[in-house]
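BUG-269 | component: ligand-complex export | severity: low

The export step for NAP jobs runs without errors, but we want the raw record kept on the ticket for reference. Input record follows.
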Amino acid sequence: MDRRLCLITGASAGIGAEFARQYAALGWDVALTARREDRLEALAGEIREKYKVSAITVAADLARAGEVTNILNALSGRERHVDALVNNAGYGLPGTYFSTSWEDQAAFIQVLYTAPLELAHRVLPGMAERKYGRIINVASLAGYIPGSAGHTLYGSVKAGLIKFSESLNAECAALGHTDLHCTALCPGFTWSEFHDANGTREETNKMPKWMWMDAAPVVRQGIEAVNRGQPVVVPGMVNKGLATLTRILPEPLGRALVGGQSRRFRHMD
Ligand SMILES: NC(=O)c1ccc[n+]([C@@H]2O[C@H](COP(=O)([O-])OP(=O)(O)OC[C@H]3O[C@@H](n4cnc5c(N)ncnc54)[C@H](OP(=O)(O)O)[C@@H]3O)[C@@H](O)[C@H]2O)c1
């Protein structure tokens, strides 16, 4: 196989589906994974037809133990290896740390943190051997700015992905892997199914339209950043401005600003 392969988690909707389209438009083969097989098949069909590349689908629930192995086995069974990994699958868990069950929190950590870390760990040796690799961890502006009440672990998990990406990218360079890069992509409000899935659409729709981005420029900036070897990218001028503002403000002010705004769209029940 001459074409490179990009594995995208959470490819059945939103930002992940856009990653699939953009990598395919760049002439890459794509491997699409998520739970909804019908969605994956429809997107794979569209991509094969439009971009004349190969699109593999692997239905998997990342909350379940062993699914990372199943996904990678499905690819190696087709004699394909991963040249780029986009750790994108994710969702918001509404409510507080008090009101949510540990089972739900543990599944959240598994899908949004443990599975991305495991996938990266398992594709890295092959990338190093072939002297080429790209890993994009879809984090969030929420991981960049102060924590606030509600949806408690979302910011922590995304902050963890940002730190991990910085460290891994630095490690690749320190070990002399000059064409192996890792980037945390930190979107702010992005049009997708995210806020429908977590039941906050009504509240988030009241946020000003200038705060929102389409998935296409978010994804484009992620791909450009990882190709440059940039460890973290915050897409869009508004998001960059918010990220900078919360860093230069005195910490209590930054926390008050984020806390006040997030009360408008985070469920506390
Ligand atoms: N939209 C935003 O405003 C925003 C902002 C910052 C960061 N993000 C991040 O961007 C990433 C993509 O979100 P999105 O906005 O594109 O949301 P989305 O449209 O709801 O897509 C989420 C994707 O994750 C998949 N997924 C959810 N749970 C899964 C599980 N247990 N196993 C496997 N796949 C699972 C979904 O597929 P299935 O349901 O088919 O499994 C879907 O493909 C997430 O990591 C999110 O945290 C989003």
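Assignee comment: Attached the raw record above. The pocket of NAP is lined by residues 10-16, 34-36, 39, 61-63, 88-91, 111, 138, 140, 187, 189-190, 192-194, 197 (CB under 6 Å).
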